[in-house]
Amino acid sequence: MKILYLTTVLPSKRKSGGEIASQCFINAIKQGGHEVFVLGYQRKNDAFEKKHHEISAGERYIETGKAGFYAFFWMLLSLTKKLPYSSAKYFSGNYVIQTKKLLYSNSFDVVIIDHAQLSWLRSLIGNRAKTILIQHNIEHQVYLMLYNSVRNYILKLMYKREASLIKEMENKLTDNVEEVWTLTSNDYKYVSSVKERGKVRIFAVPSSLTTSSERLPNFKTCDIGIIGTWTWRPNQEGLKWFFQAVYPHLLADLSIQVAGKGAEWLHEMYPNVNYCGFVPSAQAFMEQAKVIAIPSISGGGVQIKTLDAIASGSPVVATPVALRGIPEYPCSVILAEAPEDFAKSLTHLLTLLTTQSFYQVGISWSQSRREKFFADVAEAINNFQTQKVLSVAAK
Fold first, then answer.
1. Who contacts 135 (Cβ-Cβ below 8 Å, separation ≥6)?
2. CATH 3.40.30.10 corresponds to the domain 222-368
3. What's the DSSP call for residue 319?
4. Under CATH, to which class is 2-203 assigned?
5. Residue ranges of the chain that CATH labels 3.40.50.11930
């Protein structure tokens, strides 16, 4: 089958959790022997070598914090077109032109809209192909959480507007596609409650890491490792919660390393904390930590960094939010919600010896999850292929 995958940012560099999840779907579809064309933006000023069948809709700032004047332009566009800001930032004439060009020059069997923010593309597709929406999370719920977490009046108004507009957009698009693919049970239940026609599926997205049960890191560089993209507000909140609420309950001589962009405020703030910034290999960073802490307290969708932490083989302490979309996890993971319990769990794991068998628990769990994901995607796409064959036969 020939499939068009419409997304926000070309995901092959896998710089964020959303991009990792998108690339997982693309890889699974390709493994099934299908031809996939991927259309999305390139990050502004980012050295990028497009992969086969990737089409650029142009360069664009993806993170608002780096966008400068463009952020004001997107807000103006949002107001004039009555679009959510998170949708307006991806709207462009070039994206529309590229989409039309692909649709008119190819006969696609399926078009996948990756993220509800691209709902304005639905009208361009019309009845040319079966359409799937991949709902990475229920966006309006994320913005409602942000609305409830801030005190600034202007921010509250912005988040309330965003939540209202994107809820309307999500619900409308959900009922105007053949299938909606979700990543968590919460999202699956919500979409099922509002979708009047078509099918809703849930997929257990795997880790982005390449794992091997035969490899065991033979050295550790720190006691506790924390990694994330701290430019995203929900991630910032989790990191600040860790240092404000959990850190005081930890022994002062424990070594803590924090990796990822956007937490420069940590520089020299705590004597036993080393802020590494961006690291070239998230996998190597996590493998070299005795314990991984994932202190998420807000956000939506499945948390890719939790999956990666499990796949690294290092033991993990995670909050309930960090384990959303992962109802069953291996014994190498401890769930802790209260700050004191989180600190106690970290301390407990640090007293255990890391053995080959303990390492293999996370690896085996991750490999099983990957196999199930690929099988589920294959079944979903093959179902469309069967429908096509039956439709042709009926004619």
1. 116, 170, 174, 180, 181, 182, 183, 187, 191
2. no
3. -
4. alpha beta
5. 2-203
Of 173, 169, 229, 307, nearest to 43 (Cα)? 229
Give the pLDDT confidence of 202-242 residue by residue, as tens digits. Answer: 999 998 887 655 555 557 889 999 999 898 888 999 999 99
The whole-angstrom separation of Cα 194 and Cα 200 is 11
**Which part of the chain has CATH 3.40.50.2000?**
222-368
Number of neighbouring beta carbons within 10 Å of residue 372: 13
3-class state of residue 338 by DSSP: coil
Ordered alpha helix ranges (H), the chain: 17-31, 69-81, 85-88, 93-105, 122-125, 139-149, 153-174, 185-194, 233-241, 282-287, 304-311, 339-350, 356-394
User: Any bridge partners for residue 4, and if so which?
Assistant: 37, 111
Burial of 240 (0-12, 13-18, 19+ CB in 10 A): middle
**What Rg value do the Cα atoms of the chain yield, rounded?**
22
pTM: 0.86
Question: Phi first, then psi: what are they for 202, rounded to 5°?
Answer: -125, 135
Residue 153 has pLDDT above 70, yes or no: yes
